[in-house]
Records
---
Amino acid sequence: MTLARAALLVTGKDLRIERRAKVTSSQILPFGAIVLVLFAFALDPDRGVLERAAPGLFWVAVLLVSLLAVSRAFAIEVEHGARDGLRLSGLDPAAIFLGKTFAVALQLLALEVVLTLGVVLLYDVSLRSLLPLVLATVAATVGIAATGIVYGVLTVGLRLRETLVPLLVLPVVTPVLLGASRAWEASAVGAPGEAWPWVALLSAFALLAVAGGMLCFGTLLEES
C-alpha cells in the first residue's frame, strides 16, 4: 500500500468518526464563535480597535479551537484500544501521521471558513486580497495541525494530556500566529506585496512541521 493511500485511509477513518460524533460542529465550532463574540464585547468597536486587531483575534481563536481538535484526534484512539490497533495495523507511521494531520487540518479549515464569516460580520472587516490570505490560511493550518499531532501523540498516554498539549503546542506555533496575523492584516488592507513574505514563512514552517512529524511520529507512537 502506498504512503498516500494509507494516509487517506487514516484521514477517512478520523473524518467518519467525527461525522458520526459531531463534536466539531456541536462543541468546537460554538466555542470558537463564543471566543469571537467575547472579543467583540471586550474591545470597543467605535474606536476602531476591534477592526485593527481582527487578524490577531481571529488566529487566537483558531489556535484555541485547534487545541480542542488535536485533543479530540487522540481521544478517539484511546477509547477501546484503537491506539493499539493502529500500532498493529502494519501502516507506515508516517502515513498515520499524515492521515491524522490532514483530518485535523480539514476540520480546522472548515471551522476557519465559518469563523472568517463571523469576523467579517462582527468586526466589520473587508478582505481585499484573497489569494495570499487563502494561501496563508492553508499553510498556517497545516503547520498548526502537524505540530499539534506531534505533541498530541507525545502526551497521549499521560493523565494530564489535556493541560500539557496547550503548554507544549502554543509556544511552538507562535511564528504561525505572527505570520498568519500579518498576512491577514496585509490582505485586509489590500497590500498583497506585504503578505507574500509571511506566506513564505508559513509555508516553510508547515513543510518543516510535516517533515519532522513524518520522521519522529513512529518513535513517539511506540513510546506513548
---
Amino acid sequence: MAEAYDVITIGGGLAGAALAKRLAENGMDVLMLEHEVAFRDRVRGEQMHCWGVAEARTLGLYELLRETCGHEVRYLSSQLVGFSELRRRDLVKTSPHRAARTCNRR
C-alpha cells in the first residue's frame, strides 16, 4: 500500500534536513530520503554569508551550528592591490540582516 506525503526531500544534508524539519514542524507529512546509513563528517562549504545566517536563525538552526562547527566572522577586511589602505567592514552594523558571516572551525 503506497503512502502519501506532502513533501519528499532527497538528501539529509544540512539543507534537506533543515527543510524537512521545518515543514514537519508546520504540520506537513514529510519523507526524507538519504543514501548514507551513517553520518559522514564532510565539509560542504567554507562559510555562510549574512543572508544564510539570517535563514538559519529563522529555521532555529543557527545556535546549533555555532556550538558544533562554526564561528562568527563579524568583520570583512579588504585591500586593493597597489593601495595601502585596508578597509574593514562591520557586517553586523552594515548588512541588511544585521548578521556576521559564519565560517567552519578547523
---
Amino acid sequence: MASKSDFMAAEEIKAILHGRDKTEQERILRWVSESIGVTAGATIASSAAVLPSQTAKQPAPLGPAHRKDIKSFVAEKAPKNDVQFAAVAAYFYQFEASEAERKDVIGAEDLQTAARQARGYGFTKPLATLNNAVALGYFDRAGRGEFKLNAVGENLVAMTLPSGDSTGGASQGKRRRRTRVRKKGNKKLKTL
C-alpha cells in the first residue's frame, strides 16, 4: 500500500474536521495526538497549520455554551456513580470552569469541593474514588495525590454522558418478587 503524502493526510483530516466547532476540533485533535503519542505543543501547532482560516475567525466560546456553574453541569451530565462524578468534575475544572477556576489536575480536596457544590454532600473517601477512576482508565496519575483526566475520561463526559436514559439511573422497572417454595410434609407452601 502506497503511503500518502503529508499534505494529502492533512487534507483528509481537514475534511473530517470541517464544519465542526473549534472546541470539538481541538478535542478530536487532542485525543488523536494522545493516542499516537504526539506532544500537545505539536498538536496545537498542527491544528493551526491545518485549519488556519477557522482558528483565526472563531473567538473562544462564551455565554450559555460555556458553563460556569458545576451544579448545572453535573445535572446535565447525570453521572451514575462516584467514579463518573469524578470524571465530570475533572472535565468541568479543565474545560468548562471560568478561567480563574480552571485546573488541569485535581486532587481529593477538589473532588470534595465539587461534590459539596454540585450534590450538597461530600465523599467519605475521595482519594479512594480517584484511585478507582485510575483503575477504570479514566484518569492518569499526575503526581502525589494529583490526577489528570485522560482521553478516555474526556470521552466519557463529552460523548457518553448523559446516556440518554431519562430516569438518570439504571432501569427503574418493577422488580419481580421472588417466590420460594418450601415443602412441609407432602404440602407445598408458597412464601413471598
---
Amino acid sequence: MKKITKKSSTRSKHSVRCACASCKDPIDSEIWEAKQLSEHGFYIHVVPEHDPQSPSGFNAHTHGIDLIGHPDFQITLPLKSFDHVAAFFHEMFSRVKKGQSFSHGDIIHDLIANDYVVRLIDATECDRPVLRIIFADKDNNVMPHDMSPNEAIAQYGYSKTSP
C-alpha cells in the first residue's frame, strides 16, 4: 500500500470572490483555479452545501484532469476532512500522470490501507462525465447489492442493483 501524503490546497468551494473561514482572505476564483492548474495540474471543488446532484448531498470533485485526456474524479461519500478528499484525488491524479488509465468498473486494491478496495463508476457532475470513487463498506464491499442500503445510496444513488 502506498501511503497517501500529498499536500492539499486550502481552496475548496465558493463564488467568484470568497472571504470564508476556509480561504481566510478574499480571492478571485478564476485566478485561484488558474494557479492550481499551473501548480498541480488540477484543482478540487467541494460543494459547500447539500448538492441535489449528489446521492448523499456531498460532492467533491476535480477539474482539469480532463485536460490531459482522462475523466475527472468525484467523491460523494462524506469523508472526515478535506485533507482526506485531497489525498485521494492527488493520488489518483499522480497515477494518471504516470500513465495509468481508469474506467468504469475498475476495482483498485492499493489506494487504501488494510486491503480495502475502491470501485470506479461512470457518473455525471454538472453535465460532464466523471469517475466516481466508491469506497468499500466495513466488510470491504463495493457493489451496491452487497452494501448496506444507506452506504449504497450515498455513493451510487440506489441500493439493490449494480450499474
